[in-house]
Automatic annotation (TrEMBL):
GO terms for biological process: amino acid transport. Keywords: Amino-acid transport, Cell membrane, Membrane, Transmembrane, Transmembrane helix, Transport. The chain crosses the membrane at residues 12-30, 126-148, 160-185, 191-209, 280-301. It comes from Pseudomonas helleri. Part of the binding-protein-dependent transport system for glutamine; probably responsible for the translocation of the substrate across the membrane. This is Putative glutamine transport system permease protein GlnP. Gene3D superfamilies: MetI-like. Belongs to the binding-protein-dependent transport system permease family. HisMQ subfamily. InterPro entries: AA_ABC_transptr_permease_3TM, ArtM/GltK/GlnP/TcyL/YhdX-like, MetI-like, MetI-like_sf. Its main location: membrane. Residues 122-309 form the ABC transmembrane type-1 domain. One of its GO terms (molecular function) is transmembrane transporter activity.
Length: 320
């Protein structure tokens, strides 16, 4: 007897209704506060047209203005006969032929697109996460293997490091690195932030690696040794590749957490995404719009990372 598959569309409809209800509840909550949404203010904080003033280098006279496709080339002649040519936006030109200008007078402006504070904050978050993630992975791999070592000193020191870092808040570690270690060693705030994030991530990665290696059957290592591989070759070519497949999901989760943890380095004046958002709020007076954008940008980083980890996990599973 063939079992009929239940229709799934009612559940999808229910999901949509729940999301619509949540959006309606949010709108109702803001209406109670008489909040006025100003989404039109948001784009300028991603990218805007910056203006660069063009000034006269010395006291001179405008001898010619050449208009060409929205640009104006202004030719100035000084008292000594030297000429200066400036190109400005046509609609910003403030002078005409024959006008006299003094040194430092603004002739016009040039406009060009520039990254806004939210885009700059996003870039800072991305490179902080990338550098800290790579260093944390290397630290965690070395520490995880040290925890499995037969050497008591390596095992004890790695255990002390893992328990110390995991048992204290990341915010406290950032303060210690910046105000104590950073002051003594004259480190930049970026270096202190990356060091704290890397060591914090490394402690959790070490436990993930240790658990993954210990989950591999001991017979795999014994079989590799019987084929003539030494301990390091057995770990590198046999045990670690199998362990990596098992620890990929928790590793992806740890790196996603790292992206969000970068928001804590704002306490040492690193202008990452969240700090950029807070600074924008003080000038835009649009807290909800900016915070929603900040949350969306974090999702923009984490969702592709999660999707990539899922695809890699499926591909590795097929290779078994």
């Amino acid at each position: 007897m063939i079992k009929q598959k239940k229709a799934q569309w009612p559940w999808h409809v229910l999901t949509v209704l729940i999301l619509i209800g949540l959006a309606g509840a949010l709108y109702y909550a803001t209406s109670l506060m008489s909040y006025e949404w100003r989404w039109n203010r948001v784009p300028q904080y991603f990218a805007y047209q910056a203006e660069e003033a063009q000034r006269a280098a010395e006291t001179s006279t405008v001898i010619e203005v050449i208009h060409n496709g929205g640009k104006a080339e202004v030719v100035l002649r000084g008292d000594d006969g030297a000429e200066q040519r400036l190109t400005v936006a046509d609609n910003s030109l403030q002078l005409a032929e024959g006008d006299d200008v003094a040194e430092g007078d603004v002739i016009g402006v040039n406009r060009h697109w520039a990254a806004g504070p939210l885009l700059l904050g996003l870039w800072t978050t991305v490179w902080l996460s990338l550098v800290s993630g790579v260093l944390g992975l290397l630290i965690g791999l070395a520490t995880g293997l040290c925890r499995l070592s037969n050497n008591p000193t390596l095992r004890d020191l790695s255990t002390l490091y893992v328990e110390l870092v995991r048992g204290t808040p990341l915010l406290v570690q950032i303060f210690i690195f910046y105000f104590f270690i950073g002051t003594v060693l004259n480190l930049s705030r970026e270096f202190a932030g990356i060091a704290a994030l890397s060591l914090f991530t490394g402690a959790y990665v070490a436990e993930i690696i240790r658990a993954g290696v210990q989950s591999i059957a001991r017979g795999q290592n014994e079989a590799a040794r019987s084929l003539g591989l030494n301990a390091s070759q057995s770990m590198r070519y046999v045990v670690l590749p199998q362990a990596f497949k098992r620890v990929l999901p928790p590793l992806a989760g740890q790196f996603i957490s790292l992206v969000k943890d970068t928001s804590l380095v704002s306490v040492i004046a690193i202008t990452e995404l969240l700090k950029s958002g807070r600074e924008v709020i003080t000038t835009s007076f649009s807290p909800f719009e900016i915070l929603f954008c900040v949350a969306g940008l974090y999702l923009l980083i984490n969702l592709p990372l999660s999707h990539f980890a899922s695809r890699l996990e499926r591909r590795l599973a097929q290779s078994d």
